[in-house]
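Aim 2 progress update. The chain analyzed this quarter is reproduced below.
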Amino acid sequence: MTKCYGCGAFLQNDDISKEGYTKNLDNSLCERCFRIKNYNDYKPINKDNNIYLDIIKNISHNDLVLVVVDIFSISNSLKNIINMIKNDKLLILTKRDLLKDDIYNEKLLNYFDDSFVDKIIISSKKNYNFDLLMSMINKYKHGKNVYVVGFTNAGKSTLINKIIYNYTDISKTITTSNLPSTTLDTIKIEINDDLCLIDTPGIVDSGNIINYIDKAYLKKVIPNKVINPIVYQIKAKQSILIDDLCRVDVEPYNNLVFYFSNSLNIERVFKDTDKLRNLEKHEINVLKKCDIVISGLGFIKVMNKCSIILYTLNGVSVYTRDSLL
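Predicted structure tokens:
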């Protein structure tokens, strides 16, 4: 059986409701990928996340694994995935173009521990650092196969497409989308005689906000240009609202820096308003400077010790971490 070049599903022409359907088995794309690529018409497919995790667990121990991480959306579950992979791992931080140039790459890379043979930060959009990336891959790989893993929307497929464009004569590209479960199975891409990249399905982070908003809202939530942080000096009886997605109440006075998509409306309001208090409530005691992360939406840098009550969509993960920036 032949796999769809876009998503990795096995092509079939028996059942239009199932993955991999195409009218003509000579096609290289299934109908779903064709419609995503040409019409931005996304058909959701819900698969058990354990299927994707099993693919990662069954990677040959001798193969290098590229762990792709969206620098703007570092999943709270990343450590669990890293611990699951016993192979040599190369960390690739994507979407450098979202952060201002005055932020040092070294600081971002040093945020991560020594679980990796090496670390690099790239931008597929700006074609930044790809020659160095390819040099690292060739340095650390043990054989021809190199696996690419990461969470949904980390930029795996976009990264691979940029490598295809830069270093091969291949005209086909992998299907990309901001929505989860675009890649459905492994996809092998022969870069040259000595390198085969194997794309894997994006791991679905159940607490990511993209699972709880509609397709139209994604354009506002997912940033596509440099993020301009917004600084607020919070005073008594004031709150911050982030569109219709999040409310932040803080005591006592504090300075907060908001790192969210520039397309979102962030406003200061009086705390006695009930707006967004119907959302899920999170009570957070901040003991030192840290980030409060709303998974998939962005993060708030808190400068001083305080108590914060945060409201956001039901099911979205909220957690603290050491300050990234």
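The two ends are 48 Å apart (CA to CA). The longest strand covers residues 64-70. These observations will guide the mutagenesis experiments scheduled for the next reporting period.
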